[in-house]
Amino acid sequence: MATENHNIFTSEIIDALSIDCTIFGFQESRLKVLLVKHAEGIIKNQWALPGGWVAYNEDIHVAAYRLLKDLTGVKELYLEQLKAFGEVDRYPKKRVITIAYYALTRPENYQLIPGFTASDARWFNIEDIANLPYDHGQILDFSWRRLKRKVKYAPIGFNLLPEKFTLLQLQELYEAILEIRLDKPNFRRKIMKMNLLVPCDEKQIGVSHRAANLYHFDMQVYDKLTEDGFIFEF
Amino acid sequence: MATENHNIFTSEIIDALSIDCTIFGFQESRLKVLLVKHAEGIIKNQWALPGGWVAYNEDIHVAAYRLLKDLTGVKELYLEQLKAFGEVDRYPKKRVITIAYYALTRPENYQLIPGFTASDARWFNIEDIANLPYDHGQILDFSWRRLKRKVKYAPIGFNLLPEKFTLLQLQELYEAILEIRLDKPNFRRKIMKMNLLVPCDEKQIGVSHRAANLYHFDMQVYDKLTEDGFIFEF
DNA sequence: GCAAAAGTGTTGGTTGTACACCCATGG
DNA sequence: CCATGGGTGTACAACCAACACTTTTGC
C-alpha cells in the first residue's frame, strides 16, 4: 500500500490542487458516507472526506480513482467528478483548490484500509454527519444534491446495490437517497416498465415471508435501450 | 482594460490551473457561442473558447467573472461552473488543468472587447462550430449538454432573453437549446401555468401581425415559489 | 383580402396515485 | 393462526399532445 503510493510522493505533485471524494454506500436501508479520521496535520483526529493529491503527470480522474482504490480496495465503482471548489480561504495557510468527486460503491464487498494518512475509516449515516472540516460540509451537500438529481435520469443507483437485489431493496434505496416514501405497487410497475431489470430465476431464501424474486441490472440492456433513444426517467 | 488586468500579471497566478468559459447567447432565434481569436501563442489566429488564469488570492468564481467582464463588458450574467478538465495531455508542453464554466448573456446589450490576448471576438452559431483547439470541443459539448438539462428544471433560460420578451421568443429559445420543435398552444399553457411570467402591460410594436404581449421573468416571484416548495419543470 | 403570428378551445389517450386485495413463508 | 413482505388489479384524476379555430395587425 505504501509501496503503491511511493512514486506519488517522490514524483512531483501539482501545487495548490487536491482531490476530495464523497463515497456513498447503502447498508441496512440507509444511505451511508465513508469518512476517514486524519492521522496527522491540522485536523488530526477529525473525521473528514477522503482526499489526496494529483501527480504532475496523472489524469485527475485517474488520481481520484487511485485514491479510492487505496482506501477501499475496490476496483469497480461508479466515479464522477462534481466540480472544483476554489474559495481563497477554504484551506488554511495555503491556497488549495480541490476537485470534488463522488463515488458509489457496495460497502459489504470491501474491507476498509485507512491508509497511512488516516488512522481510521468508517461508514456514517448521511443524516448524522455534521461539522466536517474545511468546506467538506459544502462538498457533501453538493454531492448529495447531485446524487438526488442524477439518480432520476440515469440508472446509477444500481452501483449501490448488490449484484442481485429485490425490488423492495431498490425502492428503499431510492427512498433513502431522495428522502421520500414511495408506494410499493406503483414503484414496481414504474421500474418494471423500463425493462432494465433482468429476473435472476432465483429467489430470496430464509426469509419469513413470501420470497421475493431477485433481479439484476443489465448495463448492456441499458446501453442498447439508450442507443435506440430510450430515456431513463425515474 | 490593461490597467484592470495589470495586478493579475504582476501578482502571482496559480500554476497549472486555468479557466475556460462557454458563453452562450441567443440571437435571431439561434443559439450562439462567443469565441475569441488568439493573438499570440501556440494557437495564434485560431478561434477558441475564452479563458485565462487564476490569481493566487482570487476565488475561482471571481476569476471566471473577471474574465467575462473584461471580454464582454457585461456585469450581469448567469455564470456556473461545469467541472475541471484535467487530462494529462490536454494542453501542449505544460500540465494545465482547466476549470470550465458556462455563462448565459444577452448579446445585443454589449460590445465585445477582444482584449489584449485576443485579436477578435465573435458570436458563432453553435452548430457551425468545429475544430476547436485543445479539448475545447469537449468542453463545448459538455456545456451544451448541461444547458439542455438545466434549462428543464431551473429557469435559467431567461438570462438569454431581453428583459421583455414574447412567448414565441421564449419558445424559440427552448427550441434552439433543446433542438426540438414545440407546439405553440401547449407551450404557452405550460409556461403560463407556472406563474413565473409577469405581463408587462405592453405589446410588440411595428410587427406585421397581431402584436404579442410582452412578459418579463420575475426572480422574486420565482424565489417566493421555490420557497413554498414549487418546482420548475419544463 | 392575405399572410403571419397571437391566442383559445376541445378531445382522446396516457400516466400517476391511492388503495383494496390476494399470495407465500416462517414461526 | 398471525405477521410480514411479495405481488396484482382497479378506478379516478390529472395531464399532455394534437389540431381546429378565432383574433389582430401590416401590407
Concise summary:
The structure is a homodimer of 234-residue chains. By secondary structure, chain A is an alpha+beta fold. Chain A is built from six helices and nine strands, in the order H-E-E-E-E-H-E-E-E-H-H-H-E-E-H.
Protein architecture, described:
The structure is a homodimer of 234-residue chains. Chain A has 234 residues and is α+β, with helices and mostly antiparallel strands. The first copy, chain A, folds into two domains: 10-150, Nucleoside Triphosphate Pyrophosphohydrolase (Alpha-Beta Complex), CATH 3.90.79; 157-228, Arc Repressor Mutant, subunit A, CATH 1.10.10. Chain A is 29% helix and 29% strand. In chain A, strands 1, 2, 3, 4, 5, 6 and 7 form a seven-stranded mixed β-sheet that branches. In chain A, strands 8-9 form a two-stranded antiparallel ribbon. In chain A, β1 and β2 (30-38) form a beta hairpin. Chain A starts with a helix and ends in a 7-residue tail after the last helix. At the A-B interface, β1 and β5 of A face β1 and β5 of B. The first copy, chain A, binds a DNA duplex (27 and 27 nucleotides) through residues 166-168, 183-186, 188-190, 204, 206-213.
